[in-house]
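name: query_chain
kind: protein
chains: 1
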Amino acid sequence: MSLFDLSGKVAIVTGSSRGIGRAIAEELAAQGARVVISSRNQDACDAVADAINQRHGDLTAIAIAASISSKEALESLVATTMREFGRIDVLVCNAATNPYFGSLDGIADEQFRKILDNNVLSNHWLIQQVLPQMKARKDGAIIVISSIGGLRGSDTIGAYNISKAADFQLVRNYAVEIGRHNIRINAIAPGVVKTDFARALWEDQVASTALEKQTPLRRLGEPRDIAGAAVFLASEAAAWMTGNAIVIDGGMTI
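structure:
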């Protein structure tokens, strides 16, 4: 059996109706996992699940809409997954938000709280909810999609970067607490990837060209560039890795 084989595993991927989340869900399914597609819009989730099922067979994917800003919605996401699939082996916390661009001294409290709630607290909620059955089986893999923004400052997305730095510590702290149960938790820190989330950067030719020049591989990322690391972290290939972050940014941070 391949170290990367995920046959029989069940994975929840938040924010998986598009972009990095969708690419991760598609690659997990390609390695044999059953996947739960989740974002705010049920129709968008249905479309992705249908596409995966057409490629890999019925019941490979199911669609469960859930807003990460609602603890009740996330509880329902986990409960429905358990009812449909009977287990959760892999949790990928990918969904995030950034409603504010500009200096920190101008951000409203409501905007800052939304960023921290959606990018940090919601991950904590989901981890709390999947842990009981992972502990009972003494097995599980949790992946938090952070960002290289959590490693640097910014004069435009400072609040977002603070939330992503907090995600690194969330991963480290949970790793200490749950390692004794054979549950692993790690982060992935993407650079600038061509998703709707970063559209303002890569559709601006001047900004895109400047970013490419700062990147040793001389190109911006594609969603699939991130998906392979998620497969690795979800699989036995990463059986002795926890509490760490994989930076995937074309070399930009060096």
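note: Residues 10-247 form a domain with the Rossmann fold fold (CATH 3.40.50.720).
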